[in-house]
Amino acid sequence: MKVCLAQINTTPGDFSGNLKKVQLGIDAASTAGADLVVFPELTLPGYLSQDLIYNPDFIARNLQALQEVVEMSVHCHPKLHIVIGYIGKNTGIGKPFTNLAGVINKGSLAHIYQKQLLPFYDVFDELRYFEPGNQLTMFNIGSVKVGLAICEDLWDLYNNFEYTKSPGEVLKNLGADLIINPSASPFHLGKDSHRNRVFSGQVNRFNLPVLYVNQVGVHTELIFDGSSRAVNNNGEVAIQLPDFESCIRTVEFGENGFIPGDGAVSLDTDPLPQLYKGLVFGIRDYFEKMGFKKAVIGASGGIDSALVQTLAVHALGAENVLAVMMPSRYSSEGSVSDAKKLSDNLGNSCIELPIQDIHHAYENTLEPYFKDLPEGLAEENLQARSRAVLLMGLSNKLGYILLNTSNKSEMAVGYSTLYGDLCGSLSVIGDVYKTQVYALANYINRNEEIIPFNIIEKEPSAELRPEQKDSDSLPPYPILDGILRMYIEEFKGADEIVIEGYDMHTVQRVLQLVNNSEYKRYQAPPILRVSAKAFGKGRIMPLVAKYP
Amino acid sequence: MKVCLAQINTTPGDFSGNLKKVQLGIDAASTAGADLVVFPELTLPGYLSQDLIYNPDFIARNLQALQEVVEMSVHCHPKLHIVIGYIGKNTGIGKPFTNLAGVINKGSLAHIYQKQLLPFYDVFDELRYFEPGNQLTMFNIGSVKVGLAICEDLWDLYNNFEYTKSPGEVLKNLGADLIINPSASPFHLGKDSHRNRVFSGQVNRFNLPVLYVNQVGVHTELIFDGSSRAVNNNGEVAIQLPDFESCIRTVEFGENGFIPGDGAVSLDTDPLPQLYKGLVFGIRDYFEKMGFKKAVIGASGGIDSALVQTLAVHALGAENVLAVMMPSRYSSEGSVSDAKKLSDNLGNSCIELPIQDIHHAYENTLEPYFKDLPEGLAEENLQARSRAVLLMGLSNKLGYILLNTSNKSEMAVGYSTLYGDLCGSLSVIGDVYKTQVYALANYINRNEEIIPFNIIEKEPSAELRPEQKDSDSLPPYPILDGILRMYIEEFKGADEIVIEGYDMHTVQRVLQLVNNSEYKRYQAPPILRVSAKAFGKGRIMPLVAKYP
Predict the structure, then answer these.
(1) CA–CA distance, A81 with A77 (Å, rounded to integer)
(2) Rounded Cα–Cα distance for residues B21 and B6 (Å)
(3) pTM, 2 dp
(4) Looking at the predicted structure, is the pLDDT value of residue B263 above 80?
(5) CB B547 to CB A51 under 8 A?
(6) Residue pair A369/B351 in contact by the 8 Å Cβ criterion
(7) How far apart are CA A30 and CA A77, in angstroms?
């Protein structure tokens, strides 16, 4: 039989838009003569609809959309089975909704499967909404017994805790020939090798081929990367769809499993190209779904804003990006010329708005209250905030969307000004450590100098006071990032980090800085998630706390 | 026997501070000759520790604190049974932790109960961390059989969905004489009458007296109000502890249940005094726990800032509050004089920082890019943001903490400037509708004019352009708030709201405004929660969405 993987890009709540993409998938599957087309998890409402689900007509519209898919099935080839994700009402005791996959054929909803393993950790909160199912669904296509398992249902052994049951194992015991796995599995660096381990683990355990169909697209902080695949019971990947783009493709399933086709894509598994592609796609899809077109960036001449500007130009086109240089009395000559050179290289517009007059006006106004006190953070923050007000002014007036340029290392230790450089509609690199920022810049420059070498090579500085350098306040970035990774991503404590070779005093200071800047991150923009533990939705910290 | 209710105020992660309060409770219980002292849910780690729990030594320190309570029990009266909340490690399959209550007596941990019903809706996410228990704990004190049920365990029928089991019912069937219910049950307006319904419902169902011990204090957005009580099986409240303050009190339990003592407190059930007390306590406890002392407020001469300033003075003392008037070219004479009069009435310091020069400097700097375009939102926002930069400058320089003064009606419809009047460390009235703001102002003025009548009576205006009035852009507040309540708190759709007598066009516009301003609320400060559905943690909305 022929099986079609419909790796589509849905938007939460956009029932009519999502239906159009479903129609494309059904048409493509029909044209290819497929027996089965599989769409991602929660296809019709979109995966991350969160509390929109409580809206009184949300479920009704989602069921109406399901009905429209049933209608579509009347008009396509009668042998086609459509597997589509939607939300059901729970009529029994428990949470009000269910996470379902329906099997539609010849104008009827033939089978309904209710997801059994509902993730509730990190960025996932499915148990907030859904009651888990407790029954399996298997259906026949010709002589092939197809079993359904939605996303987490197949990840029972591969998370930070174990589940009490394994839907895959039960399917195997019931004699399934194939497991199909509609998914919404967000990207992070290393996720793909994690997936490879999971799926090769699963085919080993169950001795069954698995068809994994993941969605693609940005849902607020989360980037879904697609990378759908058909895996045979010997671990062979018969077909793999591209990452970070919509794709509909058909594969043949025979007696010995999936037959490798010529459409197989070999994905970059190097972290840098993946990170680069993920971020560019993240900006592009976020903008498209939010109805944004143009971006504005505060171009300091530093590497963070240079990277974000480059990613934005690659995502949105140079004609849609405006770089704004806002030199102060502490800005070096080089900062402006480096920033200009970057915009020249990229071909985007670039303007200069000096902040001296504004800075003076603030100082004069505040002078009666600041006069006796030594200069310090307050004066530095005035500059960062003056710039944010200018950028937001341009945004409000001209329709540019402000991109935030803070990196994860800065966000972690609070080396950033709330309502200053922490402003923006989207944090592009808030989940990218400073050392990764350098690596990405070099990756972008691998063939030619796009980001001026001078920007990469100069010593990092916020330029908010004379002769300021990042290294005045922070450990060198390789050390800082090493500590941060262990603390944030690996949940290690000070003692465990010191064992890895770091200085206790430095470690304690860094951990303190992270804990003391929760209040800044509380008000930060949404951050494109590219690591297994990003700031934001997946890391919920109290502000009122006294720890450690 | 004698039973002591230890309604204490804990801080997440503050093991040593929490232990000191436990010691006070044990001492008081010992002195009163009590047989039993009951502390609130998750006493030792504090209720809302959220992802701090993943810190590698968090659980160890929490178990160490438990050990110290065991030590304390060696030194107190041997008949005293101590019921204390803490976190356990789950050694079986499932989530990594457990929400426990331990019963300690004479130097040993005699019984451990694992909470069975774990809330995960609105502001609650206990299933993110805890594996539910499935066994009951009953222990004897003399001839009295005491059953344990932690918070939600007794709310099985009283939420937006049903649980599959009822720990209270099983305790009754096993012959318990008394149910004790250590709790962390956050305040919202009307919660107390909800509790009354729950507890009278429970004593009816089980025909058993219930002892409810709730914590008090602010945990980030949540205000826990205490109001602990002992309820007899005829529904009689034998003792009720005060709201919004720590309190330790002992009650006699005899053959016919609790014997009403003279310590019973009759609580205000009027919403206005409750709201007033809750907000004042909210500011005070938030400041105390965050180590803050002084607050700064942008005093516009409008009612929102006047209310917040008054609440801040009542919470922190006039000597700790600074009001900053920042008139622009559009500010009326009255605004400054009204704001001055308020500070005179309250006795706090008040300074004036005109923003004209700053405003001019921005306009001049932006003129090359703004010149041909009509004046509008961008110019208005420049003023709001200039003020925020001044306030944050004072905050950074002088150590004042900025209080946000946006009300819930404005926050709902986005009638506020991101990085402008949306700034602040804490949103005091972000869960208080504008109509409630007026009611609170009048309540505060019930005996004398504290908030100048002129501030209450004048037409609301942001004064960001000539002759501006709120009513230019928004429906009258009673209508706006009526619609918002139904949409946000009652989850009603447009059709259902129109049936209540509102104009369809107005309703649709308001709903659209609410949906379109999610991006502003995403970056808003923490909001003190005083309603059953506040913006923030309990209302999780996607930014990327297309709905309705």
Answers:
(1) 9
(2) 9
(3) 0.96
(4) no
(5) no
(6) yes
(7) 6
